[in-house]
Every structure is written in C-alpha cells, then in structure tokens.
Backbone:
C-alpha cells in the first residue's frame, strides 16, 4: 500500500518542530489532504511557503502549486523539499499582500484552492483579492484562525455574502470557505 503524504512528511515535521519552523502539522495536514482529495484542484495558490511542508500536502495529488514566501532562505529549503516529494511548485519571493494584489489585478488565471498561512495580521488584507482569484465553488482555507490577529478575517469570512464558511476546530483552527454564486 502506498504511504500517504502525511506519513512521508513525518521526518520533515519532526525536524521543523525542533527548529521552531511554524508548519501545519500532521493533524491539520490530514484534514487538508482530505480537502485536496475531494476537490481535486488543478491550480493552487499558497500564501506562506515556509519550508514547504503544507505545499507538499497541497501539491501531493498533482496540482500545479504557486506559493509565495517573503524569506528567501526558508524558500530555498522548500525548493529542496518540493523536489524530494515530486511537487510541481513555483515559488514567488516577496510580500504576499503585494503579490496577491498584483495577481488579482492581472486576473489571468483562477485557482481552485487558495491556502492562507502567512502573517496573521495580513489575512484580512488579502481576502477580497483571494475571492477574485478563486474560481466558483473553489476553496479559500486559512490556518490559525483562532489567533487574535485573525479575528477580523474570521468575522469577515463568516459574514461574507460570496462565501460559505466552516470553522474547523483542530488545534488553533482553520477556516474553510467555498466561493458561491451571489
């Protein structure tokens, strides 16, 4: 039987925890993998690459992953990890808020899934652009949703007329918002 990506990432998870690299972890990772397997996304946007742990989960079913990271040193680790796990990833170095704004203005492409896990205070700053960038019935998933800096984002996704949002109570929480027709 083929080992799941979560099991294969165990060593990277342990190393990341020891080094204090904030990663999704296996509990939330297993939930995220289920969403990827259900949705079968072809194109994914991730805000906050870190060392590539969550990107490996997001891209594990063969989707094209575009991921944004501000720290070039940790992004270099992600390149190595993506290669080790055979993930098709394009890493864009820079500020996530600016890059998402640029992508939304260009609006050349739609994403099936957007995963937000970067500077918590900036979640709210990218929400409207992410809604523009995700396709109809696509998902916007955000990590650490119970953090104080995410409360405005949490309230916004729960009340947004274009989103149907569920809060996932695993550890410090996730929000899972489906873009709906208005």
Residues:
């Amino acid at each position: 039987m083929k080992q799941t990506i979560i099991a294969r990432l165990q060593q990277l998870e342990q190393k990341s925890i020891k080094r204090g690299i904030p990663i999704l972890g296996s509990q939330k990772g297993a939930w995220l993998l289920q969403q990827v397997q259900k949705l079968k996304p072809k194109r994914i946007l991730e805000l906050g690459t870190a060392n590539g742990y969550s990107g490996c989960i997001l891209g594990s079913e063969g989707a094209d992953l575009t991921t944004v990271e501000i720290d070039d040193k940790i992004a270099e680790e992600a390149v190595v990890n993506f290669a080790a796990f055979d993930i098709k990833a394009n890493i864009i170095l820079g500020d996530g808020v600016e890059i998402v704004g640029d992508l939304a203005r260009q609006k050349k492409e739609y994403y099936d899934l957007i995963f937000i896990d970067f500077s918590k205070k900036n979640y709210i700053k990218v929400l409207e652009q992410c809604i523009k960038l995700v396709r109809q019935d696509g998902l916007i998933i955000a990590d650490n949703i119970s953090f104080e800096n995410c409360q405005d984002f949490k309230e916004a996704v729960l009340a947004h007329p274009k989103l149907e949002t569920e809060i996932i109570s695993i550890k410090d929480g996730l929000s899972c918002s489906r873009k709906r027709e208005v």
Summary: DSSP finds eight helices and seven strands in the chain.
